[in-house]
Structures are given as structure tokens and as C-alpha cells.
Design brief:
single chain, 139 residues, mainly alpha, 2 domains, 0% strand, flat
Length: 139
């Protein structure tokens, strides 16, 4: 059974990022709209955590949660075979898209805070030096 599961995950991990994120989006859609996996629990917890937000705002937060959760799953699977170069390219793209996010990730070492996705963990675990060079402009 181990080889069957690991073999399947290995094959999925070889897919390009955009395909994995496409599968991730499908999974998020299915878990939120079709299966409603723990939807009542998530919305109930959001009502407790954010009583001042409207129901539609809490539903939007829940949708973001399901997207982030499925992205984290896809990124975890990708880490089975991701090379350092792939991770560095992903980090480079993230820094280009949102330089402030890179600074926030660097602060994870000094200020505990929840992580948005496994991409943040990849930065911390595999490429902190590389990210620091990108942010500071040092070669």
C-alpha cells in the first residue's frame, strides 16, 4: 500500500507547478461547494473568531481557507521531487510579485505568526540565504 500511495504522489509531484495549482483549485472547489467538507465547522469557527464580520465576509474567508489548504497540499506533494532550482525560481517569482511578502517571510524567524502556505515554509527551510540576497540586493 505504501508503494502505491507514494508512487502516485511521486508521479503527481513531477507535474509542473501550474498543473498542480490547477488540480489544487479543482480540489478547493470540490471540498467547498460539492462535498462541503467541514464547512459548518469552518464557518462556525469564523463566526466565533470574527463576530464583527458579515456572513458574506466570513464565507469569503472560508473560501480563501479552502484554496490555501489545497495549495498547501499541492505544494507538499511537489516537495517530493522539487529541486533547489525550482524552489529558488518559485521564490524569485514570489519576490517579483510581492516584495513586501518576502520581508514578512524573513520576519518569521523573529516574530511567530501563521504561515499562508507551504511556499513560505519552502523559503524558510530551503532558501533563506537566497531570499535574503534577493531582498537586500547582495550577490
Amino acid at each position: 500500500m505504501y508503494y502505491l500511495i507514494y508512487g502516485s504522489l511521486y508521479v503527481f509531484s513531477k507535474l509542473p507547478w501550474f498543473v498542480l495549482y490547477g488540480i489544487s483549485d479543482l480540489l478547493a472547489f470540490l471540498t467547498y461547494y460539492v462535498f462541503g467538507y467541514r464547512k459548518k465547522v469552518v464557518l462556525g469557527n469564523l463566526a466565533i473568531a470574527f463576530p464583527d464580520k458579515t456572513v458574506s465576509e466570513r464565507k469569503e474567508i472560508a473560501k480563501q481557507f479552502y484554496r490555501n489548504f489545497s495549495d498547501t497540499l499541492a505544494e507538499t506533494i511537489k516537495m517530493i521531487t522539487a529541486s533547489d532550482e525550482e524552489v529558488e525560481q518559485s521564490i524569485e517569482n514570489m519576490v517579483k510579485e510581492d516584495p513586501d511578502r518576502a520581508d514578512n517571510i524573513r520576519r518569521l524567524f523573529t516574530l511567530p505568526q501563521p504561515r499562508e502556505s507551504l511556499r513560505d515554509m519552502m523559503v524558510i527551510n530551503k532558501a533563506m540565504d537566497y531570499l535574503t540576497k534577493l531582498v537586500t540586493g547582495q550577490e
